[in-house]
Amino acid sequence: MKTLRILGIRGVPAAHGGFETFAEHLALYLRDNGWRVIVYCQESGSGPVFHDTWNGIERIRMPVKGEGALSTIIFDWISIQHAAKHKDLCLTLGYNTAIFDAVLRFKGIPNIINMDGIEWIRAKWGAVAKTWFWLNDWMGCLVGNHLVADNPAIKTHLMTRVSGDKITMIPYGAVPVTDAPTEAVRKLGVEPGRYLTVIARPEPENSVYEIVKAFSARPRGYKLIVLGTYQQENAYHRTVKAAASDEVLFPGAIYDAPVVQALRFHCAMYVHGHQVGGTNPSLVEALGAGNAVIAHDNRFNRWVAGEGARYFDSVDTLSKCFDELLDNGKAMSDMRDASLRRFKRALTWPIVLGEYEKLLERFLPFKPRPSPDACVTAAPGQKTPS
């Protein structure tokens, strides 16, 4: 049986972000193709490591005291120590603690690392965090047996550190949204087709202020729904809200997937302000919902959204996009069609996961049978894996 251990995430089922969503899809896809998949999961609290299964996926659940970055670092360390006791192929999602992956390399355990975005250039991090990410960016390149870049621009970055032969470009995927009820949209006080959406963390590098200011430059006859948690004590959050006209709505963070899908499906346009990163999951999901897209003009977004999207690099250029496109039914219809073509060509889950399986098979260790997780302590009433 082909076996894969997935590290670097909080766990499955997905509840924390893009990497968890990807891991859930990959684990179920590989399960259906005859793989044994083991996912390391972070638990709050203390106690022994225990094992269970979720939809045929084995979970190694590791309690860790505390919250935040330190608890995640501790979890990554003990997960890698555990994986190092076996000879199975590993897939590590993210390089934030890549220095620990040297343990796997030293023991000859094959480890493929998804290098995510260029985390150390993000404006939100201080000097210490940026240095940590920069060092681990280098370490991931050096100690990983192979690297995955989710965007051609990320591969170009990684090629400044290692040979291109060591890097495979595989983007992120999404589930197509072909229909959705309108009730969730109407509950927010907006009409289907008469609003735009922004789904992003409220941070300067995501251009939320520029989007709100450009939209609020004049009456639009549409609403702008800005999802995310905005706190009064945060200066940037206050600045964003102060720039908003009465056509801008801040309903807070919404994690209910069907509601988010409905908001995507029925919006007139999706506005994507991310300035850094790779292939952003939210942008891929917008394409999968057939949204007309206006995105910040950078190499990452241009590759993902393609020629059918519109791009902005300032408040003025974005305001002009709104002027030209809103109520221009033909232009927005063409953009929606282009989004769906781009999505179906390269960004569906079957395409993405198939590419991952081909890559993983190249690095499978040759052995007669999977090694047992003998050191795992079973929870009461549960059996240890075999």
Summarize the structure.
This protein is an alpha/beta fold.
- Uncertain runs: 374-386
Major sheet summary line: 8 strands, mixed
Rg over CA atoms, rounded to whole Å, is 22 Å
Query: How far do the termini sit from each other?
Result: 12 Å
Strand order of the largest sheet: 3-4-2-1-5-6-7-8
Helix/strand order, N-terminal first:
EHEEEHEHEHEHEHEHEHEHEHEHEHHH
Quaternary form = single chain
Query: What is the β-strand count?
Result: 14
Percent in helix:
25-40%
Gross morphology is globular
Provide mean pLDDT, rounded: 93
- In terms of structural class, how would the helical and strand content be classed? alpha/beta
Beta percentage is 15-25%
Count of alpha/pi helices: 14
Structure description:
With 386 residues, the chain is of the alpha/beta class. Helices cover 38% and strands 18% of the residues. It has 14 helices and 14 strands. The chain has helices spanning 18-32, 68-83, 102-106, 127-143, 152-158, 183-187, 208-215, 235-242, 257-265, 281-288, 299-305, 315-325, 329-346, 349-362, and strands spanning 3-7, 36-44, 50-54, 57-64, 89-93, 111-114, 146-149, 167-169, 195-199, 223-227, 248-252, 269-272, 293-296, 310-312. The strands form 2 sheets. An 8-stranded mixed β-sheet has the order 3-4-2-1-5-6-7-8, with helices on both faces. α3 (102-106) links the parallel β5 (89-93) and β6 (111-114). The protein starts with a strand and ends in a 24-residue tail after the last helix.
